[in-house]
Amino acid sequence: KNQVEQSPQSLIILEGKNCTLQCNYTVSPFSNLRWYKQDTGRGPVSLTIMTFSENTKSNGRYTATLDADTKQSSLHITASQLSDSASYICVVSDRGSTLGRLYFGRGTQLTVWP
Amino acid sequence: EADIYQTPRYLVIGTGKKITLECSQTMGHDKMYWYQQDPGMELHLIHYSYGVNSTEKGDLSSESTVSRIRTEHFPLTLESARPSHTSQYLCASSDPGTGSRYEQYFGPGTRLTVT
Lengths: 114, 115
Hints:
The structure holds 2 protein chains of 2 kinds. By secondary structure, chain A is an all-beta fold. In chain A, 0% of the residues lie in helices and 58% in strands. In chain A, the strands form 2 sheets. In chain A, strands 2, 4, 5, 9, 10 and 11 form a 6-stranded mixed sheet that branches. Chain B is mainly β. Helices cover 0% and strands 44% of the residues of chain B. The interface between A and B is medium-sized, with 23 and 23 residues.
């Protein structure tokens, strides 16, 4: 069964600190992995997208890593800001259909305190 | 910022009412999607469209229906709303991308509450 599991479910950190969010998946055949940021009451916004051959991808203070062998990904946030408070969703796409089906994790709820 | 819009943003209605959630995009994307999301849960695909006059059901069974008469417009309709329909509904569209690296853009969502 294709699944995407994220940990931790929630996380609280102080402003300025770093944090790392985890994603494990069983989706096969794998196409690509995305990280989205979803603010409360808003739609998800794409942060990074990585294919099989990409091990790391950065977007400002966000750095995603991918280990396609172990089917694990992480999202590292550096020097956190209050605006980083949001849900971070790991999404894996398969290549078994023309639609490019997306499998969503439940997200990690990050709260940054001043 | 993605040019995809949803109205209304919030809707509270009584059981049995017919409602239409609007979604429009100005990016000229052929593929559009509707997702349902409950608090703390993953997004579930309920409908998608490859283009004009194309509509398909997603993975999560839904009593809603959709239509795609124009490229930019993908409305979702509930003929008779029930409390079990209470949820957040997210519309999305995707660009052609390169191979499987298409980007999916989400609207702000409609928070529906059926009393």
